[in-house]
Specification:
By secondary structure, this protein is α/β, with parallel strands linked by helices. The protein is 31% helix and 31% strand. Strands 2-3-1-4-11-5 form a six-stranded mixed β-sheet, sandwiched between helices. A five-stranded mixed β-sheet has the order 8-7-9-6-10. The protein binds adenosine-5'-triphosphate and 1-O-pyrophosphono-5-O-phosphono-alpha-D-ribofuranose. The site of adenosine-5'-triphosphate has 18 residues, from helix 1 and helix 3. 1-O-pyrophosphono-5-O-phosphono-alpha-D-ribofuranose binds next to strand 9 and helix 6. Pfam families: HisG. GO terms for molecular function: ATP binding; ATP phosphoribosyltransferase activity. InterPro entries: ATP_PRibTrfase_cat, ATP_PRibTrfase_CS, ATP_PRibTrfase_HisG, ATP_PRibTrfase_HisG_short.
């Protein structure tokens, strides 16, 4: 029997936006895939030999980089944070729009000038992107790694600033923070394992199917 082709898809907010794109690319998973209450992690699709796995957003890149999955759907924030050389990101899927930004308490921002920073202490889920961003402009960044709820860090004294994803800005506002610097714009991408691109004949036609699906949805 042929080895199945595995596509890694993040659970959470991207899943809902990814399902119509997958369908347009000709891949319809078994119903349990869209059911967030299901405890299954590996799902059949209506395409023989194509299976989906549902993993955490940050783990999609790791599964694909190591060849455990051949393709994946993941935010460009995650791709930038890992910078795996084994990953190729050929299609911008146009979903999961947000931005990665530096934020700080509104009272602090009133008198703060980012051009005067020489050292910053930052709470973030993105220590590598954060350090590289600040290093590029000669600022040393000391990062406190968190996996969520970064917005709590300034008021609780963990770090005066945060680097986190912003979309509507509601989370910042409700926690008394304001955006002071934008690091990158983010959308979700189709990622492919570079070796699989060469060794699995099904990969290139699938990439083209996703490209067409995105063009049709515009
Ligand atoms: N507010 C947002 N608006 C749009 N896209 C977002 C937003 N927040 C996150 N994303 C995108 O969705 C991806 C997954 O984010 P999500 O918040 O679902 O993951 P998470 O809850 O942090 O994941 P996990 O629980 O696995 O740690 C991010 O990597 C980013 O690309
Ligand atoms: O600007 P907004 O529209 O408020 O969106 C920003 C929020 O969205 C993301 O979190 P998410 O809602 O995914 O929660 P989580 O990180 O705790 O999973 C991000 O980490 C911010 O907290």
């Amino acid at each position: 029997m042929a080895t199945p082709l595995i596509i890694a898809v993040p659970k959470g907010r991207i899943l809902a936006e990814a399902l119509p794109l997958l369908a347009r690319a000709g891949i319809r998973p078994e119903p349990a895939f869209a059911d967030e209450d299901s405890r299954a992690l590996r799902f059949a699709t209506d395409v023989v030999h194509i299976e989906l796995i549902r993993v955490r957003a940050f783990d999609v890149a790791t599964f694909v980089a190591h060849g455990a999955a051949q393709l994946g759907i993941v935010g460009s924030d995650v791709i930038a944070e890992f910078a795996y050389s084994e990953l190729y990101a050929p299609v911008d899927l146009g979903i999961g729009h947000c931005r990665l930004s530096v934020a700080e308490p509104a009272a602090m921002a009133a008198t703060d000038d980012p051009r005067g920073w020489s050292h910053v202490r930052v709470a973030t889920k993105y220590p590598h992107v954060t350090a590289a961003h600040f290093a590029a402009r000669g600022v040393q960044a000391e990062c406190v790694k968190l996996n969520g709820a970064m917005e709590l860090a300034p008021t609780l004294g963990l770090a005066p600033r945060i680097v986190d994803l912003v979309s509507s800005g509601r989370t910042l506002k409700e926690n008394g923070l304001v955006e002071v610097e934008r690091i990158m714009d983010v959308t979700s991408r189709l990622i492919v394992n570079r070796a699989a691109m060469k060794t699995r004949a099904e990969v290139v036609p699938l990439v083209e199917a996703f490209r067409r699906a995105v063009a049709e949805s515009r």
